Amino acid sequence: MVVPSVDLHLPAGERRLAAGLAGAWRDVLYAPGPGFTSPLDPGAYRSSFVIVPVEGAAVRLSSLVTPAFGGELCRLRLEPLDHYRPETFGSFFKPSRAGTVYAFTPDRSGGAARAPARPDWRYDGPPLGDRLGRVHDVRVLRERGRHGEYSWEADRGIAVTAGAGGACLLLSVADSPDAALFVPGPGLYRTLLDPAAPGAPGATVRELLGYGEWPADLDLTVELLPVRTSGTLGRGGVR
User: pTM of the prediction?
Assistant: First the structure.
């Protein structure tokens, strides 16, 4: 019997974009607004993100979401950006740059672009330029799942290792196709980078990847794989 399965692997063009992120970064940009931060998910930021390398085109990261098996699966999506307006984005390298949001006037008769008024709509942490200014390793976080007769593989995100700042994650989310998660420091997400690391209550692999409400018999594993610009992703990394 053929087991129904879904493959959500990065296509060749997006693998090339992921591989090209190894090198010097000029900035990591985000679209400010509601939902950017969450008290239930400290240390993770939800938005669409733009990585600006020192050389080459900027790369936008969001989520590609597809219905499957009565629910939704997702993978990270990478797109080149040849033209964009940097002033509309906030910056993780220069936190004083908060970008703009479109807000209605008090009488809701019109609106205009303005700085985000609420502190939870913008990044207010330390500048990340020293930590993430040079990335020397990019790996794909691949999720493998099986529930009953169904199975799937999905390239849920990328883990990047910077020379001065350790690892960070960019992770797709199924509930917001225009957004992804950016996790500058592993924190609760450490178990995705090292499954042998002790997990925290409420932060198991299932919960971090959005499967906390799925049935208990769901079989879910993750693996970090080196990026290959042709063919398939190579084996290796963390199992």
Answer: 0.87
